[in-house]
Amino acid sequence: MDFKLKSVIGFLTILLVVSSQLIGQQKVSDWQKSSATIHTEYIAINFSTTHQLKATDNVVKTKKGIEAATSDEDASLLSDEIAVPIEKAAPFLGVGSQLIFANTPDGISAVGLELRYSKDNQQWSAWKPINPDAHLTTTADTLVGTLQYLPKSTAAIQFRISIKGEASAGVNLRSLRFSFTSPGATSAKRLKEINAKAKSGRRTDPRKQNKQQYPMPDYVSRTGWDCPDGQQPSGSYPLTDVTHQIVHHSAGTNSSNDWPAVVRAIWDYHVNTNGWSDIGYNWLVDPNGVVYQGRGWINGDDEVQGAHFCGTNSNTMGVCMMGNFEEVNPSEEAKESLSELLAWKSDEKEIDPLASEYHSSSQLNLKTISGHRDGCSTLCPGENLYTQLPQIRNRVKGLIEESSEPIVAVDSVRNYPNPFRETTNITFSLAEAGIVRLTVWNTMGQFVEEIARRVYSAGPHEVPWNASDYASGIYFCRIEFEDQSTVQKMVLVK
């Protein structure tokens, strides 16, 4: 009998939730149309009605679900083979899980969930434990597992559940829901553009280049990594005044030829399995040192409250280092990009990277650069990254100090009025005569207009900019003089 047909017959009580999501790009300009499509399917299992389990040990079925027959020994169950409901996943298959149970005094620690996979239903992988996703705030009777990254050739999975020892008394397994995601392969052209932003070849982002402050590193925008919601989030989030920066790891795959696809898989898991309106992190960094914009900004303001710190997210910026740093060490490129990102925000917000400050939301005295585990019960960001945070804090401090020398060639840069309605005047002062170029950029890093490019004498100058043809929003005026540049933020209101 055909394997897929056999699996369907053997698992008659599995509800295949036909909610295939062929998610297209939205709110994206023609020059950045999506090159990848996310496809997600769900399978839900109700333990009170299913009869087709391959093996059980010390369990009994009840009207509410499955529970241990006796409480003096471990209980376990093994599923039948489950056919993957997606054909031709690319470039990998992401598998998420949500296990619901009841009557567990010891909570999640009383229940263990494992998974294995096969491409032919003959040869199976080793069992992989599915650890709880510590970024979620869930009830004690819900285990939302970390996203699993399986080969694209995976045709079937099996799961195994164990209830541990004396904690098994009264534990009732209610349901289990799997998500299967193909994040779509990133086009070769897009990958080349993104990989050019690796630490080895990255430039400073022109939106926030100012040698009086540590510059924002160049990054891949949401449309750059093919976010299905485009540059703007679909939900509404509060802004937050960042006082603490929280470092995470994804606890996922350590190797990939397509890291933008990994970002898309994380976005899909956060949105379509966790039920959030956007990805939880503010920023992500891949092992090549490429920086990715995470949660969408509000009117050009990057300090949007994320979802990454156990429900105490206010006043934080969350940065996810992609990889599992319980298993491997973070790359030097990724650590340097992390340090640059933290240095930019620390300098912008006048945060001492070596200090500890009270964090009101968690009610903890935290290092201003902390690991996820400093405020939550989790291994995140992994031992191999967490133990390097002291060196990273020192590196951040050093980067800020290296950039602290003031500009003497271009000074007194500002614009007035600010905010403005149609026209604003940009002022600056030169220590010596020379060629000055003034350009305007939008919050997506797109060039808007060149205002001036000519020789100016030493002394103060004023240049008007008429923005009557442009939409309301935040713009950046970049002033270039010799090998130096500075940026002025301008707010257009109509």
Description of the structure:
InterPro entries: Amidase/PGRP_sf, Amidase_domain, PGRP, PGRP_domain_met/bac, Secre_tail. Belongs to the N-acetylmuramoyl-L-alanine amidase 2 family. One of its GO terms (molecular function) is N-acetylmuramoyl-L-alanine amidase activity. The longest helix has 17 residues. The N terminus is likely disordered. Helix content is 13%, strand content 33%. The strands form 6 sheets. Strands 1, 2, 4, 5, 8, 11, 12 and 14 form an 8-stranded antiparallel beta sheet that branches. The chain has 494 residues and is an alpha+beta fold. The protein folds into 3 domains: 144 residues, Jelly Rolls; 217 residues, Peptidoglycan recognition protein-like (Lysozyme-like); 83 residues, Immunoglobulin-like. It has 6 helices and 28 strands. Helix 4 packs across helix 6.
